[in-house]
Write a structure and sequence with these properties.
alpha+beta, Glutamine Phosphoribosylpyrophosphate, subunit 1, domain 1, eight-stranded mixed β-sheet, five-stranded mixed β-sheet, 15 strands, 33% helix, binds glycine
Length: 374
Amino acid sequence: MADKVTRRKFVLTGTAGLAAAAAAPTFAQAPTVIMKKSVKPVVIASANGNKFKNGGQVTGIEKAFSMMTQGSDVLDALIAGVNIVELDPEETSVGYGGLPNADGIVQLDSCCMHGPRKRAGGVAAIEGVRTPSLVAQKVMDETDHHLIVGKGAQEFARAMGFKIEDDLNTDRSRKAWIEWKRRTDPLHYLDPIKRQAAIRRVEFEMMEEGWVDPNHFYGTINCDGINAKGEICGVTTTSGLAWKIPGRVGDSPILGAGLYVDGEVGAAGSTGRGEANLYNLTSFLIVENMRRGMHPKDAGMDAMKRIKANTVEKRLQRADSNPNFNINFYILNAQGQHAGLAMYAENDVSYAVCTENGAQTIPCEPLLAGKSTE
Ligand code: GLY
């Protein structure tokens, strides 16, 4: 476990405490000094991390936890876990079989952060690679860059030895796209505001009819872990918003939005409406809140309130002015404490946790009562 003390307290408890304190500069906000002790290892993720097995025996968080506790690098373990979800054709919000963009092409986003190494990498709008998280890790390990996008990301993946496929649709994702096209194409000549509202109506209908999992309309798995040495890493990977405008990049590959890790403080990641998360950089905000001593739950609720306060456009509000979308946070601190939060507790929204006691799925705590749609 890590004890967190302020610089002032640290100095005062030292042997030269009083003298040093007299000479110490005044800090408007005392920076933290972290002393690491051992931590109980834990892996957390969005609920799909404890659902999909891609035909194997274990879920993503079980795989990550077992690799991590057997000595693998924490990030290697987490990425092996999310690879199960990326490769599972039944998961329509991540990797292979993820719902495609408006042109029927699957474009994937991912990033990863390594706490101890203070390194990160990401790819956005990459096509043809089932496991964008592994490409993101290559960006981190093999380049000086943090983000490679589009055709460049695909060429980079090819150069790194990844198989590039023509089409990452499954029969299921293709059928859902064709159905979306069938329902929305007649609407393309409406004025832009009416058209947007009409498309949104179709998308809600399709969620209600079971074409799309409402919790994963925006796609994504986020997975974060800490080992017994207190080493923290995280990864987020997604096919993004279903039927997005080609080239649209969400929050998932953006450091500070879909994921942020500080090896001394903790990790935060998100699923749900990426645009809200991009606007507010909530993963970074959550980690900074924890740096100031907030518990993961309080740190996340504060960020959730920021999103609510900044959602001022009517098209994004319910009749009572609250947001008309959901967004979720998965938060882990350097003591191994964690939280899973949602704007609304709808559709059994939950998060996945794996410890030495096994894997479980726990309801997310909501900021607001009711549902995103009335
Ligand atoms: N949160 C995933 C996305 O909006 O793309």
